[in-house]
UniProtKB/TrEMBL annotation:
Keywords: Kelch repeat, Repeat, Signal. Residues 1-16 form the signal peptide. This is Galactose oxidase. InterPro entries: Kelch-typ_b-propeller (IPR015915). The keyword Signal applies. The keyword Repeat applies. It comes from the Eukaryota.
Amino acid sequence: MKFLYALVFLTYSVSSEIEILRYPPTDPQPGPRKFIIMNGVFSHNYFIFFGGYNNRDDIYSDIWNFDLSTRKWSQAFSSNGNNPSKSYLVARYNGGGFWNYLRDEYCIWGGMSIRGQLNDLWCFHLTNFLWREVEVSGDLIKPRYRIGYTNWNETSTVMFAVFGGITIEHASYDLYM
Ligand SMILES: *[C@@H]1O[C@H](CO)[C@@H](O)[C@H](O)[C@H]1NC(C)=O
């Protein structure tokens, strides 16, 4: 099996041409992995990812961002020394994520872990580098992974939608916002 390591940029402008550029590995550089959660964080001019897993079945709980001006990766560490792989925030893959520009946070939801499917929401503050678990209310979303997800803005609110995915029982067609 092959695991993706390469970073590729698709440049799409108003012309119909789409140019693909491969970025060679840099140092530091996240290792090969799959099923990561990745989103743009444009207030910091980078994109960011969380977790994923490799070909030795190690599930990750690290955070990396790729700076769009320097074109370099850097790893973000929790400033209170809490390694997210500890039990309170379990390593995972195939969850969802979004950037909450209102609070300067990167948030991840659900996914698969050694404890099975998840439905928790965690946010990482992008300036003070602290994780917090976010309390949710309303309809309960069953733990799941391999979801479809997206996010958008409504008036002073960041919206995050989750569709489908795999729960303990079956593939799902639930839609939650
Ligand atoms: C939401 O608004 C912020 C601030 O204007 C913007 O940077 C961000 O890209 C918007 N997100 C989406 C998904 O449109």
